[in-house]
Amino acid sequence: MKKIIGILILVFASIVFIASAVSELTNSFFGLRNKTSVREKWWGSDKGAAGDLYGFTCLTQFCVSDTSILRKPDCSGTNKSYNIYALTDSYTEDIFKHPDYFCGANKCGYAFSNNGDVLPVHLDTTQRNIVMIECVERNIRTSLADSSHLKGFLTILKEKINETKAAEKAHSFHFHFNIKNLDGDYETNLWDYRFLRPLKQLKSKMTFNIFNRTYVDALVSPDGKYLLYQSTVDTSFIQSSYRPIEDKELKAIITSLNVAYEHYKRLGFDEVYLSIIPNPTTILYPNYHGLKYNQLIPRLENDPRLKLKVFGIYDVFRKSSEKDKLYQRSDTHWTRFGSMVWLNEFNRKMASHL
Question: Please, how many CA atoms are within 13 Å of residue 314, restricted to the half-sphere of its CB?
């Protein structure tokens, strides 16, 4: 009997090891367990539903969900006079799914920046055609420094089509066996199950209360109200809101953006906009335990070398009397309230040009 149990344990450990060493297997299994229809089952994923940072920490005080919806604005009486096509991320992807979110827009389309997909566009020269490059602040110093990335998300078609979303690339399965940095995949395959939530919450509570420690990727804010993504705080990461940026690096980012600007102007677009979504740390904690905000957004947006039009939300967020409503407390993203502030401000700005 002991031998059989030993063999079963060995087989189970081997399966977990192989699945964790092949990211494609872990990602496929996680994708299945993270579906809405599966998430509430005993074997469903315990991450994501209450925020990705809660998924890291399992601290019960942050087990909250933003259940509000993205509302379409009242655009009655507004003439539809422009088309807008965007390079988006998880902050604005939902906004660009339908032109009704944009007062004055006849058509909108988007390509998700993380996928490397390409948006096909047929330019209607009877209307203004706008390109929007949107980027969350933590990715400025990587994504916006790559002009090929900025130019590659859109292609011009000679014939008219109805598609307004980039077709997802077909991803063939590749068996990439990698035994380095397995901790995250091990945790997903062994512990990321709904039925284990009480046990994980108890462990996290004890670790935090006794040792004041959380999962490595998340930090509790100084006032205890928010979970913060560690890479937006720790200055050893390039995504940090407090990591200094020299003018040489800023110039390289501006040069990359200007190359993209010239590219889209040559393709026939009337305007090219830049929109930066501030890190939660930037707005909520500009001074963090002696660290000061590096001023990346205002330096970039106000630099006279930048050719793109800027749709800035930094000052609106910074001066808001409702900062506590802008970002989720257990997630790296903004709330629906925050996204509606962005959308309403954009519609207000565009209305002044119609």
Answer: 24
**Rounded Cα–Cα distance for residues 256 and 240 (Å):** 21
The answer to whether residue 193 is domain-embedded is no
Please state, in angstroms and rounded to a whole number, the distance separating the CA atoms of residues 63 and 67. Answer: 13
User: Which tokens belong to 132?
Assistant: 């929007």
Range list of β-strands (E), the chain: 82-88, 105-112, 119-121, 128-136, 154-156, 218-220, 227-229, 271-277, 287-288, 291-292, 309-310
Q: pLDDT digit of tens for each residue in the chain (354 aa)?
A: 767 776 766 665 666 566 666 676 766 766 677 777 776 776 677 776 678 888 888 888 988 877 788 999 988 888 889 999 999 999 999 999 999 999 999 999 999 997 778 999 999 989 999 999 999 999 999 999 999 999 999 999 887 666 566 655 444 445 565 655 566 676 677 667 777 788 878 888 888 888 777 877 899 999 999 999 999 999 999 999 999 999 999 999 999 999 999 999 999 999 999 999 999 999 999 999 999 999 999 999 999 999 999 999 999 999 999 999 999 999 999 999 999 999 999 999 998 765
Contact 281, 233 (CB under 8 A): yes
| Pair of tokens at residue 306 | 């930048």
Report d(CA 110, CA 117) in Å as an integer.
Answer: 10
Give the range of the structural domain holding residue 280, as residue numbers without chain letter. Answer: 82-167+236-351
> Beta 287-288 vs 291-292: how paired, if at all?
antiparallel
Structure pTM?
Answer: 0.86
**Closest C-alpha among 261, 228, 265, 232 to residue 140:** 232
Contact by Cβ (8 Å): 312, 276:
yes
Give the largest CA-CA distance in the chain.
79
Q: What is the CATH number of the domain that holds 116?
A: 3.40.50
Residue 158 and residue 166: Cα distance in Å, rounded?
A: 16
Does residue 345 lie in a domain region?
Answer: yes
Looking up tokens 């000679």, which residue turns up? 158
Is 36 within the bounds of a domain?
Answer: no
Report the 10 Å Cβ neighbour count for 45.
21
Indicate the number of domains in the chain: 1
Q: Considering the domain boundaries, does residue 131 fall inside one?
A: yes
